[in-house]
Amino acid sequence: MTDFNATPTPVKVNAGESLREFWHYFSVNRGAVIGLVVFALLVLVAIFAPLLAPHSPDQQYRDAILTPPIWDAMGDPRFLLGTDPVGRDMLSRLIHGARYSLFIGLFVVVGALVVGVVLGVLAGYFGGWVDALIMRVMDIILSFPSLLLALVLVAILGPGLFNAMVAIALVLQPHFARLVRAAVMAEKNREYVTAAKLSGASHMRLMLITILPNCLGPLIVQATLSFSNAILEAAALGFLGMGAQPPTPEWGTMLASAREFILRAPWVVTFPGLAILITVLAINLIGDGLRDALDPKLKRS
Amino acid sequence: MLNYILRRLALIVPTIIGISLCAFFFVRVLPGDPILAMAGQHGVTPERYEILREQFGYNLPIWQQYFNYLGNVLQGNFGISLSTKRPVLTEFLTLFPATIELSLVAMLLAVVIGIPAGIFAAVKRGSWFDQFTMGVALTGYSMPIFWWGLLLIIFFSGYLGWTPVSGRIALTFFLRPITGFMLIDTLLYGNWPAFVSALRHLILPAVVLGTIPLAVIARQTRSAMLEVLGEDYVRTARAKGLSPNRVVNVHALRNAMIPVITTIGLQVGLLLGGAILTETIFSWPGIGKWMIDSISKRDYVVVQSGLLLIALIVMAVNLIVDLLYAVINPRIRVQ
Question: Angle A251-258/A266-294 helices, nearest 10 degrees?
Fold first, then answer.
């Protein structure tokens, strides 16, 4: 019965097994699973926003300005979470806002990751003056408070969502560069790298194919952290009037225009912030789970 | 140790030059014209414009302007604010104590609550207290603090009417600053009602600014404690029959504090970033609000020198933390 010709494919089995092992460690953390579920729901909400939102996010109902949420005696069944100061439906704006926040997170992380990895690999692999130059530039970026630096960059580039994302990616990118550099420096003198070098692999191949995959663990954790940081910082910039501009239904921008109504209409302030908090919390829960699952030091406990 | 300090200082020189370059050139590429901004809405005649350009050195090549700027800064001249016409350094020194006071109280709250919470969570690992504390800590860590500030205002100022909404002290008190720290000045004058007023103004901003450091410190303390509690010397101490309190407080805590102190130091940069938001929400007259106001007023000189001063402070604090770290942990010095 045994088929001796069936050659096992070790690479595939390993990948499946390590994924299963990873899931085993990840799912032990109940919070991480909850975070993942919430995040998945948010992604669905963002994708299907136009179908889910009961109203257009920009439609102004002039007869229903500052309507409280439905559970208030003054509530209007048309507007579940009430309306804002110009009569737009809060719920619809929040649903559309999910698109902005998740897109901001994704854009910033990809941008910061690509730039940070390239700089980090170059610095760690070549060392010497390349390393010194890149790392001093990273030190300079890190010695400004990130929000302040992002603010000044946006002031230079002009307020707006795209510029805000570019600025945030720029200030978050040194964390990736430092991480990758340290990992590359630890890996580059290992035997498998020497072996690859002796068999004639090019610098490019050594950097990207031989070394980089072995630095993935901490990078994934950092990417998750940056994702939530990016959302928070973009919301802060929006709140300070330097990020997405009204009438964009971005959550931070919504908070900025709601500020003067905080005592009269608390719901216009409460919900956008709650949306930010839930999103960031879900991502941070996932991040904690990933860190525990990917960090071999914690596995033994 | 001296060797270590010298090496660290040598690394800092290029960073300082880089910071000054950034502050200078960032601001020079800001859209708008500094002289028109200075003239304000009255405008300026073309002849006067040329005179002013020459007077402020804007007609020189840009690199020469940079060196002039650097030379002035080294002599303690950080320029004159375009909007208030006062020296930037004077403004900075007037406003800085407000930010320091706010940050210190915020940090105090974070340390006094965060460290014990982290220790208990680690000692009672897996208990409801541990889960609850870590849940709260992660929520605090994920908090958009500008929203958190607004919520606290809604509840404590709007609903309960306990705390004022903005400023450092009620306008009815006129106190000439001695130290610039409102809590200390009011006590030095022996003016008890003023002290209470200052405290009531301070408490909400301090809670808001302290939230994220508190969460970070609690989490870091817990994980550092857990790591140390698993070490052999802790087991030995337990096996010797020492009381659990003594094991935790003497054997574990001292070693666990090393990473926690680093974490506290690293929060300083973040604290200054958080101060921008906190001071904006509570109209707190500190450097965070000053910077954001200057950015929106396009006050080049303030933004330039403010960036430089803030970056230098963050760097100095990080350096001090590194040195302290080397003092506590001799292993660092050798590397």
Answer: 150
CA A72 to chain centre: 35
Q: Tell me if A127 sits within 8 A of B294, measured CB to CB.
A: no
Task: Tell me the CA distances in angstroms from A222 to A142, A180, B137, B138, B234, one per residue in order.
Answer: 16, 10, 19, 16, 32
- Of the pLDDT bands very low, low, confident and very high (cuts 50, 70, 90), residue B39 is low
- b/e for B125-155, b at 16 or more Cβ within 10 A? eeeeebeebbeebbbbbbbbbbbbbbbbbbe
Residue type, B253: L
Rounded-to-integer distance, Cα A179 and Cα A186, Å: 11
The answer to whether B279 and B264 are in contact (CB under 8 A) is no
- The model's pLDDT over B276-299, given as tens digits with 9 standing for 90+, comes to 999 999 999 999 999 999 988 888
Q: DSSP letters of B105-147?
A: HHHHHHHHHHHHHHHHHHHTTTSHHHHHHHHHHHHHHT--HHH
How many C-beta atoms lie closer than 10 Å to residue B165's C-beta?
15
Interface test with B, best of A28, A152, A254, A255 (most B CBs within 10 A): A152
Helices B88-123 and B192-229, axial angle in degrees (round to 10): 50
| B303 to chain A, closest Cα gap in Å | 8
Q: Across all residues in chain B, what is the average pLDDT?
A: 85
- The three-class DSSP label of residue A246 is coil
Q: Across the interface, which of A228, A236, A255 has its CB nearest the CB of B142?
A: A228
Instruction: In whole angstroms, give the CA distance from residue B246 to residue B250.
Output: 5
List, in order, residues 6 or more apart from A72 with CB less than 8 Å away.
A82
Question: Which run of H or of E encompasses B265?
Answer: helix B253-281
Sign of the Cα torsion B87, B90, B92, B98 reads negative
Total H helices, total E strands in chain B: 15, 0
User: What torsion, rounded to 10 degrees, do the Cα atoms B307, B308, B314, B316 define?
Assistant: -170
